[in-house]
Structures are given as structure tokens and as C-alpha cells.
Design a protein that fits this description.
By secondary structure, the protein is an alpha/beta fold. It has one domain: Alpha-Beta Complex (Protein-Tyrosine Phosphatase, Chain A). The chain has 12 helices and 5 strands. Strands 1-2-5-3-4 form a 5-stranded mixed beta sheet, with helices on both faces. It starts with 11 loop residues before the first strand and ends with a helix.
Length: 257
């Protein structure tokens, strides 16, 4: 699948995903992407012509240094900054930010993606509930789509999108397949660039590190869903994070129709 926004690698509309009750998710409502720093002029034209009105950025300040989103000036987008530290491994921009002791600690304590997602879910319920609200209650009737992104568009974005789709009634196997698609989208130029950056820092190409940077194994998001199911499911999780029942119904209406 090609990215829909030129200059990105992992952008797509989540419309068309099967629903458990039949039918499919609506197009033009929830988009996902890697960072928009490299958006080309054609990509800007796509954004301008799209129904996207709100862009949610999960990147930390460190990740955004020197890499602001490029969205053009032809119309206004509402930028919402919701930085999440968990999942930010791929966004480390400079070896100067990591001393030798920190690097050694990273090698000793490399988490799996499943570990990373469970830690994220354990600390970011309010953040994910806010994203759900933004999708459920767009402030602009014309440009009412929401684009969610981080650096790679696979971990923080992947968990957020999986949560919202699952809570809205999307078929879980299809949600898992959409999550796993990111690895295919990122293979090649994006993955090579990120791994070369790590090599330049002196980071050894350990399989666990390569997975953190480039992989989206179905088992990782399945572990996240198992964690959620033990606590009542995705919808309950979002409500525990502050999403109201009315907003949950509005979210389902927006995504599932």
C-alpha cells in the first residue's frame, strides 16, 4: 500500500476496515501517518484537498527538533500536541543526547514492543481518550477528519488507532492487519535511514533494537488487546481515561456510521 500523502511512508485513511456488525469504517474520518516533516508539495496539495482539519502529534519536543510538520499555508490545520515518551525510541535525533551510561542501560533493558505498548496503555489513558474526543467531536463541519501521527506512525499511532477502531466496533483481525501493515510500509528507505542513524551512533544492530525501530508484529498488538480485555475492553479503557458515554457513542457514529 502506497502512502496517501507524498513525502510520507506510512500514511493512510483507516476507512474501509470491516466492522463486526457488518459494513466497514467510514473514510475521511480517521487518518494515520508517520511524521509530516518530509511532506512534498504534492503531499501538501493532498492535505489541503482532504477533509483533515486536526493533526494530532504524539512526538516529543526532542523528536520535533529540526523536523516540524510541513503542511503548507493554503488553509489552517488545528495542531494538537500530545507528546508520549513511551514509543519515542525511533525519534532520538542526536547521539549527543545519550551519554555512554545511558546507552549501556538501553542495551541491557531493551523492551519488547509488547512491553512498550503495555507501559504506554498503563500511563496514557487520558491522552488516548483526548484523541477519541477529537475524532468524536470535530470542531469544523467541513474539515472534520483527524490525522494521528508520531515519528514512524507504528507504535504510539498504532496503539491509538487500534484502540479507537476496536472501541468503534471494527473487526479485530482487520485492526491487527492494519497495525501490521506499517512494517511493510516502512521497509526500505525509511527503515534503512533509521537503522543507519543508529549505526552512526554506535548502536549495535541487535535484533531487539531493529524490531523496536521497524517492526509491527501482530503478537505485539494482540498483547495490548489482551491487556485491555482483562480490564473491560477498549471502550471501557477510554471511558476510564475520561471519555464520556456520549462521546463514546459519537466516536462510534463517526467511525462506524
Amino acid at each position: 500500500m502506497s502512502a496517501i500523502i507524498a513525502g510520507t511512508y506510512n500514511s493512510r485513511d483507516t476507512g474501509g476496515i470491516p466492522l463486526t456488525a457488518g459494513g466497514s469504517t467510514r473514510t475521511g474520518v480517521l487518518y494515520r501517518s508517520d511524521a509530516l516533516a518530509g511532506t512534498t508539495d504534492d503531499g501538501i496539495k493532498t492535505l489541503t484537498a482532504s477533509p483533515i482539519g486536526t493533526i494530532v502529534d504524539f512526538r516529543t519536543d526532542m523528536e520535533k527538533t529540526g523536523l516540524p510538520n510541513r503542511v503548507g499555508t493554503r488553509r489552517r490545520f488545528t495542531a494538537v500536541q500530545l507528546p508520549l515518551l513511551d514509543g519515542a525510541f525511533t525519534g532520538m535525533p542526536s547521539p549527543a543526547d545519550l551519554d555512554e551510561a545511558t546507552m549501556r542501560e538501553l542495551f541491557v533493558r531493551i523492551p519488547t514492543l509488547a512491553d512498550l505498548y503495555l507501559r504506554m496503555l498503563g500511563t496514557a489513558a487520558e491522552t488516548f481518550a483526548e484523541v477519541a474526543r477529537l475524532v468524536a467531536r470535530p470542531t469544523d463541519d467541513t474539515y472534520n477528519g483527524v490525522l494521528v501521527h508520531c515519528t514512524a506512525g507504528k507504535d504510539r499511532t498504532g496503539v491509538a488507532v487500534a484502540l479507537l477502531l476496536d472501541a468503534a466496533g471494527a473487526d479485530r483481525d482487520a485492526v491487527i492487519a492494519d497495525y501490521a501493515l506499517s512494517e511493510t510500509n516502512l521497509v526500505g528507505d525509511w527503515a534503512d535511514l533509521m537503522l543507519a542513524r543508529l549505526k552512526a551512533w554506535g548502536v549495535p544492530p541487535l535484533p531487539a533494537i531493529t524490531d523496536l525501530v521497524t517492526a509491527t508484529p501482530p503478537e505485539a498488538i494482540k498483547a495490548a488487546f489482551a491487556w485491555l480485555d482483562e480490564r473491560g475492553g477498549s471502550a471501557r479503557y477510554l471511558c476510564d481515561g475520561g471519555l464520556s458515554d456520549d462521546d463514546l457513542e459519537a466516536l462510534r457514529e463517526r467511525i462506524a456510521g
